[in-house]
Specification:
Length: 238
């Protein structure tokens, strides 16, 4: 038997009334089979929703079988707001998409819960998605170059470009340049410590541009675009 806290990222129907949960934990991704989860009256019906943080008890090895579940956090405000929920689902898809990658899962699991707590409590939460997505790039080994040319390390006459891998000198330019305002915000958000409150926010123009740059970065460097991001563009208008 093992016990662990996990965030439900995805559910897959299994046989008639069961499902398999894909759960992010301090040890990385785990799959948990829940017998009868779809049956009315199942004690696990409500605890097996996406974006629930659950204390699991399970048996087995590769595919774990649930023996008990206790809800730790259900994020009611996120669930009640379609835009907020879709944005959180976008982060869940990112985690799920790269859940098998090798990085410090214990640290990033704790970080993910802090970001979700901000989604739950802050009116203007989008900046926390940016922080999550920028820091995740570092773990995935494709962090933007924020201090010197990505190709040669030169520190003068730099502009920031997705295709160049971040800052680039005049000899290593690829693709269109990002505005200075968006670049400065991204560098700041990339380096931010969540212990310090984020008081200021990028203005609307910078916000739209940062969203586009992060999307382009994941698409160009990781070939990734979430389904939720497409839904989100309908809700946000960008
Ligand atoms: Zn260069």
């Amino acid at each position: 038997m093992q016990a662990f806290d996990g965030l439900i990222l995805k559910q897959i129907p299994f046989k008639e009334s069961s499902k398999i949960l894909h759960v992010y934990t301090a040890e990385g991704m785990k799959s948990v089979l829940v017998h009868g989860a779809k049956k009315f009256g199942s004690p696990y019906l409500s605890s097996s929703e996406n974006l629930n943080l659950v204390k699991f008890q399970a048996t087995g090895r590769d595919l774990l079988t649930l023996t008990d579940a206790d809800l730790i956090e259900v994020y009611p405000r996120i669930k009640a707001d379609l835009e907020r929920f879709t944005y959180a689902q976008h982060l869940a898809e990112l985690l799920h998409g790269f859940g098998e990658a090798e990085y410090d899962h214990a640290k990033f699991f704790a970080f993910t819960l802090k970001i979700l707590a901000k989604f739950e409590t802050e009116a203007d939460y989008q900046v926390y998605a940016f922080i999550f997505e920028l820091k995740f790039l570092f773990l995935l080994g494709v962090a933007p170059a924020f201090t010197a040319c990505a190709a040669c390390g030169k520190k003068d006459e730099l502009t920031f470009r997705v295709r160049s891998g971040g800052l680039s000198c005049p000899d290593h330019l690829e693709g269109p340049a990002v505005t200075d305002a968006a670049f400065r915000w991204m560098r700041r958000l990339y380096q931010i410590d969540l212990k310090d409150p984020v008081v200021e926010r990028p203005d609307e123009a910078a916000t739209v541009e940062i969203r586009r740059v992060i999307d382009d970065w994941y698409a160009y460097h990781l070939n990734f675009r979430s389904k939720s991001r497409s839904v989100l563009s309908g809700l946000l208008g960008y």
